[in-house]
Design a protein that fits this description.
505 residues; 24 helices; two-stranded antiparallel ribbon; single chain; 53% helix; mainly alpha; globular
Length: 505
């Protein structure tokens, strides 16, 4: 939704930390939770010491661009016969097993390679395919590789490659699009969902004529789940008129005409989606317009738009912090990465993949061609309980693996003035209220402003010891050297995952 009524009035000028708008734990987590999937405590401390948000953004994006795509599995180009032969040979691994393996790989990448994979997940919900529809594990692997390859690259090239990918050709019936029976499915979604938006600067005639120009990608050479290639005999070799341009247009021409004749609409549509995903569901028309101009000026390169956005005062404005409801991937992967704990479970990606699927986000298999709508859709009453318990599972698994790691986390956490870039506390201080406030600020995007809720959290943390332990000059006086800090932190985490603000980022 585009609006000019947002309370966030800051511009796309570069954010420079100041006394009024400090570079602190809150803003570091805001950046990492949006551009990736959370920061470890080590990354938070490094960012505080660096005190240069723009340099950090450049570094994160540069690292993402430099990443190689995930190497394809051995079955990444198998056809159906090869999968069936493998199933007969070992008697157990049907194609569904390999598709699950591919999703586990994606979740592992989401955990390890935050920025590039954040964009990969975003584009998987833009150029939607459902692996339950095309069913080929090899197509799934190739599609995922394509998303990674173009995630921060050139959007025009992205559109071109995705339209003739095997997964997309099957999903939107491009493999059935022949000259005598043009299939309009992909042509419609190319404009409606992928580049222009619903009913925006195209007509039904444009869709029909575009479908003719996209005919011919139907040649499988008789091999099921094999590469789908162009067959000139099935191409509609006639004149077509698209956006007022007439000629015997081909697939290449469609992409050229689209980006020549509708560049402003394409740029605005994509930048609106980027804004809604990375900043706020309520978009600023003025900010989107500036992002769109950057997109056009850079020949539809994605990275310059992201650099401009993530470096900006607008992105770091307090109104943008905590303005988005976490997706299932956010709630689990960010929590896991921010804790940085070892878990007892042997296969973390497999657990997270299964959990996010149960919570409504089956990676590489969105609910329909329009994708997950996100935000409020993630937190229906039945899903909320699952979100609480899934986060609690991570706590329990970490506890069973190594209780000491909970106390180690709190010791060295940015506390008090340390949250604004100073040194962490010693074992003998500070007071318990300051420690709990630091923990709360670490896991909640805006901390907890309500004193009643904060005091409830404080009470949970303090409960293990008598009140005298927390009195100044008491004997003994509570401090971070107590081994029971682990138990206190576990109780606090178990309590806060149910608080509504924990669902925000």
């Amino acid at each position: 939704m585009i609006s000019d009524t947002s309370c966030n009035l800051d511009s796309l000028d570069v954010y420079v930390p100041s006394a009024e708008n400090p570079w602190n734990v809150t803003r570091i987590h805001h950046l990492y939770r949006r551009i990736g999937f959370g920061a470890s405590k080590t990354e938070v401390l490094a960012a505080l010491a660096q005190n240069d948000p723009s340099a950090l953004v450049d570094n994160l994006i540069d690292q993402a661009i430099a990443l190689n795509t995930t190497p394809p599995p051995v079955w990444g180009f198998w056809n159906r016969e090869q999968f069936e032969a493998a199933e007969m040979a070992n008697g157990e691994n049907d194609p569904g097993f390999y598709r699950q393996e591919g999703k586990n790989q994606m979740v592992n990448d989401l955990i390890q390679n935050g920025v590039r994979e954040r964009l990969t997940l975003f584009w998987s919900n833009h150029f939607v395919t459902e692996d339950d529809t095309y069913r080929s594990p090899a197509y799934q692997s190739q599609y995922y590789n394509l998303l990674q390859m173009h995630a921060l690259g050139n959007f025009r090239d992205f559109v071109y490659d995705i339209g003739i990918s095997n997964a997309m050709l099957v999903y939107l019936n491009g493999d059935e699009n022949i000259k005598d029976r043009p299939n309009e499915n992909y042509a419609r979604e190319l404009y409606e969902l992928f580049t222009l938006g619903v009913d925006n600067a195209y007509t039904e005639n444009d869709i029909q004529e575009t479908a003719k120009a996209l005919t011919g990608y139907v040649d499988t050479n008789g091999v099921s789940w094999g590469d789908i290639l162009f067959d000139a005999q099935q191409f509609s070799n006639e004149s077509k008129t698209i956006f007022g341009q007439t000629g015997n247009w081909t697939y290449d021409d469609v992409i050229n005409i689209l980006f020549q004749q509708r560049e402003r609409q394409v740029a605005t549509f994509i930048c609106t989606k980027l804004y809604a995903y990375f900043v706020s569901p309520t978009c600023s028309e003025a900010i989107v317009a500036q992002m769109a101009q950057t997109f056009i000026d850079n020949n539809f390169q994605i990275a310059p738009v992201l650099r401009q956005l993530f470096k900006s005062e607008h992105f770091f404005n307090f109104e943008a912090i905590g303005a988005i409801i976490k997706s299932p991937c956010d709630i689990l992967i960010c929590f896991y990465n921010e804790l940085g704990f070892s878990l007892q479970t042997a296969n973390v990606p497999d657990y997270i993949r299964g959990a996010v699927r149960m919570l409504g986000q089956d990676v590489l298999n969105p609910i329909d061609v329009e994708g997950w709508q996100g935000d409020g859709d993630w937190i229906s009453p039945d899903l909320l309980i699952g979100r609480w318990e899934s986060a609690r599972f991570i706590i329990n698994q970490a506890q069973q693996s190594n209780t000491q790691q909970f106390r180690d986390f709190v010791v060295g956490l940015p506390i008090g003035t340390a949250a604004d870039g100073n040194l962490a506390p010693t074992l003998s201080g500070p007071e318990v209220e300051i420690v709990v406030r630091a923990i709360v600020n670490y896991f909640f995007p805006r901390g907890i402003q309500d004193d009643v809720i904060f005091n409830e959290i404080l009470g949970v943390f303090k409960e293990i010891f008598p009140p005298t332990y927390y009195e100044i000059g008491g004997s003994p006086t509570w401090n971070l050297g107590f081994t029971e800090v682990s138990e206190q932190f576990i109780a606090l985490l178990d309590y806060i995952v149910d608080i509504p603000e924990f669902q925000l980022k």
